[in-house]
Amino acid sequence: MQNLAALKEKLNLPKRIVITTHIKPDADALGSSLGLAGYLLKLGHQVCVITPTDYPDFLAWMDGNEDVMVFEGNEEKAQYLVENADLVFCLDFSSLSRIGELGEMVRKSEAEKVLIDHHLNPETFAQYVLWSTEAAATAELVFDLIEMLGDVDKITKAMAEALYAGLMTDTGNFKLPSTTPHVHNIVAALMELGADVSKVSHYVYDDNSLDRMKMLGFVLLERLEVIEGSSVAFFYLTLEDKKRFNYQTGDSEGLVNYGLAVKGVNVSAIFIEEEDKVKISFRSFGDIPINELSRKYFNGGGHKNAAGGTSFDDLKTTINKFKELVQGQIKELNYEA
Ligand code: 5GP
């Protein structure tokens, strides 16, 4: 941690604090933000978590959810809070462009910034930085920070559960190579602090609408393909598919992993049509740096085995581009078709 002692001193007196995280927060983004918010509230600070956009309902069980401010629809209030904050914590993103319009407000604010993140290539805008691409989740880094500040005993059951949700999901249920002994040690500590891991898993994974389950069945039946001569699977969702299954924020979360579950497949992609763009999620197994493909060809980034990107071509053109890459240039990723 860069400037830990100075941050600790800063936190000795009550501060106005904003915590923010990336667009369409997932369980790690929200869990690490609410876990940290719980801790900072306990220290006596004024804290507001501002998310750039809404997030899935299956995260609404987290303690503090009801006080989260969604930027979209609350722009003026959010601007006031960011402008008048003493500290802005930026969690689970490495560049201010990942938080949309809120990014420029944070940049312009005179508040000191704290970056806590595990993505590649962090932008240098923060005075305090806890950053490691070795960390499995931002929740891991938040736990590490609280531990470095000597305050693990201040973690409540609710905070432990929010942090656990981040670790559970960002490690793909403790299956990804990022699942280290340190991760398991933190999980053990969170359980000792009261985290009900079975409950968290139930809330995150077993809270699907019937529409979502039917969409999953449809996608697996009608939209999943393995590209001929390759070990790459992909599928897609059109605007029409989304309408048919009453698509809600978060409904496509995790779908991409089903491609990797096909025998012999080690790269999976899902293309999700939006009004003005196509949002893409990529997953890979083993030594395939799928974030490089995403960064180079699809305006994206992320981690070696889990990345995302955006295409401004239409759905068909985007999928064809991907297929051509798989059949040709993807070899530059050390990928053996
Ligand atoms: P997901 O596929 O779950 O949306 O994202 C997987 C990983 O890729 C996450 O770490 C996420 O932050 C990152 N990611 C997703 N979309 C983008 C994007 O458009 N740009 C960048 N730089 N990273 C992304």
TrEMBL record:
InterPro entries: DDH_dom, DHH_sf, DHHA1_dom, Oligoribo/pAp-PDE_c-di-AMP_PDE. Pfam families: DHH (PF01368), DHHA1 (PF02272). This is Bifunctional oligoribonuclease/PAP phosphatase NrnA. Residues 16-166 form the DDH domain. SUPFAM superfamilies: DHH phosphoesterases. It comes from Reichenbachiella agarivorans. Transmembrane segments: none annotated. Residues 236-331 form the DHHA1 domain.
